[in-house]
Design goal:
heterodimer, A: alpha+beta, Rossmann fold, OB fold (Dihydrolipoamide Acetyltransferase, E2P), B: mainly alpha, MetI-like fold
């Protein structure tokens, strides 16, 4: 029953605020991801939960227990490092059974646990090999096995797939989730790869510059981003600039450049204010030639990129703004270079945000 | 690119020039550093018969050599055991005062050995030192004092090496261990120590070589006790004029055995080191848990600091006390104006010491850099690199007095016209060369080969690569390596004593300190000797301080 609660947790390194007043509740048996660009504080947050570093302020609870002053060895956690940190002077087997041994279990019990977790990661060959003799995928499995063998119910993973090839990575991500679910673990997974986070997580916290911007299920984040950054960082978004010309209920009317008026879901904008419209590339309906419907804008295909599953069109709109539109390659009709088209979108698939003070570029910057 | 380098850059592409530089450096290494001491012994090999005919001398030599090895093994073992918690404290502690502690740890390393020996003598043995608290002489000259001395000067070497290892060590291994449930003590015992084991062995070897080869300080505190180097020195005093043949034979015998046994020991360590397994399988959770946190940790740190202050730092600096006293008497004025038997030679000797130090440093950079690059970059294959790596270390293990003597045999026996000052320079060169090449090759190895390759793909010629990539990135290592060479040369006593009659500063001090029978070669009051030591320590401090300021925060030596 380890849920993890963070209350106003802050961590500074010199003048840099790595984690800025973060409060989170990670539920028991949940697969939770901390997602954000490098330097956003997600790894620091994970290390705070593990006790590898101490917070400057706030409280960290694992289960009911306040653990601020509990050293890592007494937090009952499993930690998988990005570099795996397999002990180079021990064999794979000795690495895996290290946890039970240092906890003082007797040898037979340690060995039983070792065999169980190796069964789980499906690795039984090369157990007497040293880490530098193993492939990346094998090292990763040993690292996970080692963390599981410690018997903890809270598994912390710091970019556990970051060092692996794309194919292996895709395979192992589901395996880790499966294991966490089979063992009924609470897992906290740090990653900068939004596709990875979406694929494996029950819930995701999106972080930027030490702050948590939004917490939600993958679909919540994708369909209802609460900020420009989340709309940009999770999946992909087209951003169109304009002014709020009127608001009625949950719908705002936005006047884009060139006087085009469209309707979109309001995200708390005020009338007359400068705004940004965010629309997913696959949210557009595209028709050949001219067409009169709600939120219709005419334009022309400027570039076509064939990506396999999808075709990606760069479209120049009548007001000279450009948008990217993505269509499935097998089920939809294809358009030609230079072809005149009309794009439209349903108001609830487009979100209006107040135009950021520092500008769009700064707002979505991942630096 | 500056014009003045353009021509040189072009030339540096030529294979002949490239090989020429490496070949010259390698040849100089063999001709000036490696072969002369070995040939020196071979030349005089026949004189060994003289000693074999005098069994009492052979027995004495063997006894002395046995003492050397027992002391070296004991002391370097204690060095590693006592140095580890100190290195741990320096690298893992949070206090800003640890920087100061770090600097203080180097003091015995840079105090001239002659001054160090005298300082310990005053501290432990003279009625004026701490002994006064115990009524009389606490530890008289002899075995125990020699062991204390060797601990004092080899401890900083061990600490320095282990600190370096801990700084390079990837903390993640230890963190992984902690998250798996190991308290700090178990984590460091089962993970960290095993991973830095090569450095622990290196610390042992360096401390061992330092103990085996040290002569100048040991002479001062030995009394009637003899180890290898003291035996050689005593033979010089007793027989060098009365029976030169016997003296030479004794030196050849003692040096040969010391070198042979040292090399054997190092070969054994080299072979067995990688196979040496620290006991990591068993854990004792309840005991080791107690050792992981306060009050055990506080106790450990306190004991470490007390040992350091009482056995290393205070005895090393004790000699400076009379120097403070001298400021209030006319001793200081006499010293500065060069009055009296000691001061009339002292300042000249200081100038000579610093001159030799400067020349030796310059030659080291010139000769050592190509060899260091050759070793680090495996320019002529991995095997050549390994061979050079091993050969470079040999002068480290030769007792400094034996090195001096065999150098004298060689140069005087073959090239008599070479002036004495060059013998002195060659001796210091041989002693300091390993330090410089060691630290430089390690520094060059740390530069990724990719950087050099990147420069080459951008069109840089070999000299340009050296000038623009290697030199700037190893600048601090070169400076700190050079200063290490310089201070070592300034403090060198044993080899200097053997090779020449020229008076360097440490030699003046060695002569001014009363012999076991109370006689002095140079007459001086304890106050004057203290002041003379104080000056040398002061100069060393200034150099060390300069080093810290220049390389501040940019890596260590």
């Amino acid at each position: 029953m380890p849920d993890v609660r963070l209350v106003n947790v802050t961590k500074k390194f010199g003048k840099i605020v790595a984690v800025d007043n973060v409060s989170l509740h990670i539920y028991d048996k949940e697969y939770f991801s901390l997602l954000g660009p490098s330097g956003c504080g997600k790894t620091t947050l994970l290390r705070l939960i593990a006790g590898l570093i101490k917070p400057d302020g706030g409280e960290i609870y694992i289960g009911e227990k306040l653990v601020n002053d509990v050293p890592p060895e007494d937090r009952d956690i499993g930690f998988v490092f990005q570099t795996f940190a397999l002990f180079p002077h021990m064999t794979a087997w000795d690495n895996v059974t290290y946890g039970p041994r240092v906890k003082g279990f007797d040898m037979r019990k340690a060995e039983t646990i070792g065999h169980e977790v190796l069964e789980m990661v499906r690795l039984h060959e090369r157990l007497d090999a040293f880490p530098n003799e193993l492939s990346g995928g094998m090292m990763q499995r040993i690292a996970v096995a080692r963390a599981l063998a410690a018997g903890a119910k809270l598994l912390l993973l710091d970019e556990p797939l970051g060092q692996l090839d794309a194919k292996v990575r895709n395979e192992l991500r589901y395996e880790i989730r499966r294991m966490a679910k089979d063992l009924e673990l609470t897992a906290i997974h740090v990653t900068h790869d939004q596709a990875e986070a979406m694929a494996i997580s029950d819930r995701i916290a999106v972080m930027k510059k030490g702050k948590v911007l939004q917490v939600g299920t993958p679909s919540e984040l994708y369909l209802n981003p609460q900020s420009i950054f989340v709309a940009h960082f999770i999946g992909e978004s087209n951003f169109l600039e304009g002014y709020v010309s009127s608001i009625s209920g949950k719908t705002a009317v936005i006047e884009l450049r060139g006087g085009i008026k469209v309707q979109a879901a309001d995200r708390g904008v005020k009338k007359g204010e400068r705004a940004l419209l965010a629309i997913r590339p696959e949210a557009f309906i595209v028709k050949k030639g001219k067409s009169e419907e709600r939120n219709a804008i005419s334009g022309a295909i400027e570039r076509i990129t064939f990506e396999g599953t999808n075709i990606r069109y760069d479209v120049r709109l009548e007001n000279q703004d450009t948008v990217v539109i993505v269509k499935p390659s097998m089920t939809e009709e294809w358009f030609n270079m230079g072809e005149k088209i009309t794009v439209s979108f349903s108001p609830e698939k487009a979100h209006v945000f107040t135009y950021p003070e520092a500008g769009l570029k700064e707002e979505i910057s991942v630096e | 690119m500056p014009k003045k380098f353009a021509a040189l850059d072009g030339i540096s592409s030529s294979k002949a020039v490239k090989y020429g530089i490496y070949a010259t450096a390698a040849a100089l290494f063999f001709a000036l550093i490696l072969l002369p001491p070995i040939l020196g012994i071979i030349i005089k090999w026949s004189s060994i018969q003289q000693v074999l005919d005098a069994p009492e001398i052979v027995v004495r030599a063997l006894g002395a050599i046995k003492n050397s090895f027992i002391i070296a093994l004991l002391v370097s073992l204690v060095d590693v055991i006592a140095g580890l918690p100190m290195a741990w404290l320096i690298t893992r502690g949070k206090s800003k005062w640890l920087n100061v502690l770090d600097t203080l740890c180097d003091i015995p390393f840079i105090v001239p050995t002659a001054a160090l020996g005298y300082s310990l003598l005053l501290f432990w043995s003279n009625p004026g030192g701490v002994s006064a608290l115990f009524g009389g002489s606490l530890i008289s000259k002899g075995l125990l004092l020699v062991i204390l001395l060797h601990f004092t000067f080899s401890y900083p070497v061990a600490v320095r090496v282990i600190v370096g290892a801990l700084l390079d060590y990837k903390m993640e291994y230890e963190q992984a261990s902690r998250t798996l449930g190991a308290p700090p003590f178990i984590a460091s015992r089962t993970v960290t120590l095993s991973i830095i084991k090569p450095s622990l062995i290196a610390a042992f070897i360096l401390a061992f070589s330092r103990s085996i080869s040290e002569t100048g300080a040991t002479m001062m505190v030995a009394g009637a006790f003899e180890n290898g180097p003291v035996f050689i020195q005593n033979m010089k005093t007793e027989y060098s004029t009365a029976n030169p043949q016997l003296y030479e034979g004794a030196i050849v015998l003692a040096s040969f055995i010391l070198i042979a046994v040292s090399c054997t020991i190092f070969a054994v360590i080299r072979a067995l080191g990688p196979r040496l397994k620290l006991p990591i399988k068993r854990v004792w959770p309840s005991i080791e848990r107690k050792l992981s946190y306060s009050p055990a940790v506080t106790t450990r740190n306190t004991v470490t600091l007390v040992i350091f202050l009482a056995v290393v730092l205070a005895p090393s600096l004790f000699v400076a006390l009379p120097a403070v006293q001298a400021v209030f008497t006319d001793a200081l004025w006499n010293a500065l104006s060069g009055k009296g038997e000691l001061w009339s030679v002292y300042w000249q000797s200081i100038i000579l010491s610093y001159f030799v130090g400067a020349v030796v440093t310059f030659l080291n950079v010139l000769m050592g850099l190509p060899v260091a690059i050759m070793i680090a970059r495996k320019r002529f294959g991995a095997l050549t690199s390994t061979i050079f790596d091993v050969l470079v270390n040999i002068p480290l293990v030769v007792p400094s007095i034996a090195l001096g003597v065999s150098l004298k045999f060689f140069w005087k026996g073959t090239f008599q016209f070479i002036p004495e000052i060059w013998l002195l320079i060659f001796a210091h060169l041989a002693i300091t060369y390993p330090y410089f090449v060691r630290s430089m090759s390690a520094a060059v190895e740390r530069i990724s080969l990719d950087l050099e390759d990147a420069a080459k793909t951008l069109g840089a010629k070999p000299l340009t690569v050296f000038r623009t990539i290697i030199l700037p990135l190893t600048k601090y290592s070169i400076i700190s390596g050079a200063i290490m060479v310089f201070t070592r040369s300034i403090s060198e006593t044993g080899a200097t004593l053997a090779v020449t009659n020229l008076l360097t500063a440490p030699l003046v001090l060695a002569y001014a300190v009363p012999r076991p029978d109370g006689s002095q070669v140079i007459h001086a009051t304890p106050l004057e000797v203290g002041l003379a030591c104080g000056f040398l320590i002061l100069f060393s401090f200034i150099i060390l301080l300069a080093l810290r300021l220049i390389v501040r925060g940019k890596g260590r030596y």
